[in-house]
Amino acid sequence: MIGASLIGASGIPNWGGGSNSCSSRPETGLFALCPTINAPRPLPWGSPEFIGLGFLSFISILLTELFGSPFLKNVSIIVGLAVGCIVAGATGYIDGSSIKSAPAITFLWVKTFKIGVYPQAILPMLAVYISLAMEAIGDITASAEVSRVAVDGEEFDTRIQGGVLSDGIGGFFSALFTVTPLSIFAQNNGVIAITRCANRTAGRFCCVFLILFGVLGKISGVFLAIPNPVLGGVTTFLFATVAVSGLRVLSYTSFTRRDRFILASAFSFGFADLLVPGIFTHLFESSKVA
Length: 290
Fold this sequence. Notes:
Blueprint: H1 2-15, H2 48-67, H3 70-74, H4 76-90, H5 97-101, H6 122-146, H7 154-176, H8 187-195, H9 200-215, H10 217-224, H11 228-251, H12 257-275
């Protein structure tokens, strides 16, 4: 469900040109064209040029997996991004303003803000944290499955406990840094499945690189300059891999009547929100009866 939700909320919208307001194709305003009217080559959402760029990245991943060497297969995601970016750059779809405007080195965390409590936000943010904890459980399960470790038993329960605790600590520090709670990235499950690398040392190096990219503003600007369709074509594949990991976990279950009941209850809300995302929009609004 997480993978399917991410495909609909981020993957495919970016593939079409952007997951921002341009996806609704307004007739006027900043988002009348994707990603904005100020882009180097703005186009309406879903234009064939955008679809083609995303498909180029997508098919590059597939061809690398089918015909590439073992090394190339492990970096097929990077190949997809590189091919898409090269073509996008050659055809003028890359906006270099994020690179030019980014500082060479930045240390934003040295700035301080007054710590305070906003009571009205406590319950809504608590709901967000609970939602993220539930997402973490699903992502950790999928990560364990693609890493070929146990997805049940005491060891798995300990892994879930540690993951949720780590997620909560990360959310606590997020609040101190005046940002919203951080969540576990479901894309990582797809990356593990594709690269077949579940080594923790590799994960630690990735963390170091992310911190380094946060300090070196120019490198961050390069990632921000990646066109949405290219990113969408790659992330759609990753999100689909997440969904497949979940299906594989379910396939190991010998369904009893109780298991089917639990799964149907969960899917009722999951599919409802996925297919009709606005159902809970007015949940806390006061109703007026004529």
